Amino acid sequence: MKQPRKENWWSRNWKWFVPVGCLGTIILVAGFVAVIMFIVFGFMKSSDVYKEAVANAKANTSVVEVLGLPIEEGLFVSGNINVSGTSGRADLSIPISGPNGKATVFVVATREAGNWNFSTLVVEFKKSGTQISLLE
């Protein structure tokens, strides 16, 4: 009498191992990307130029009239900051919002002798597209 052939581990388990392995790989890659984004956004949000730009926007009465209080920063800052010693350059787009709407703070600044000098510091409102310069 013939004995039934015993299946190996792979032939018994491939139906659950393949989807779980693919899903696990996708989760690991997504987690790695999330950690990198968290580090980059955290670095940008902790920079002096970011803090100064947001403080200027929150202190401007025209911005407060349009957006209302409280004004909060968004999660996804875009742009770049390059700092080397006491000099540097920043080009950022910072989303902000209040109870009455959303806006973006556009920042272009250079750092000389440790101080940030803004060449562009503008708030653009999403609804109307109007801009308010924070340099005046």
Tally the structural domains.
2
Spatial extent as radius of gyration? 25 Å
Label the structural class: alpha+beta
Stretches with pLDDT under 50, minimum 5 residues:
none
Number of helices: 3
What is the N-to-C succession of helices and strands? HHHEEEEEE
Shape: elongated
Distance between the termini: 96 Å
Instruction: Write down how many β-strands occur, each being a DSSP E stretch of 2 or more residues.
Output: 6
Strand content: 25-35%
Overall average residue pLDDT: 93
Note the main sheet.
6 strands, antiparallel
The portion of residues assigned to helices is: 40-55%
Describe the structure.
Helices cover 41% and strands 35% of the residues. With 136 residues, it is α+β, with helices and mostly antiparallel strands. It folds into two domains: 8-46; 48-133. Strands 1, 2, 3, 4, 5 and 6 form a six-stranded antiparallel beta sheet that branches. A hairpin with a 2-residue loop joins strand 3 and strand 4. The radius of gyration is 25 Å and the shape is elongated.
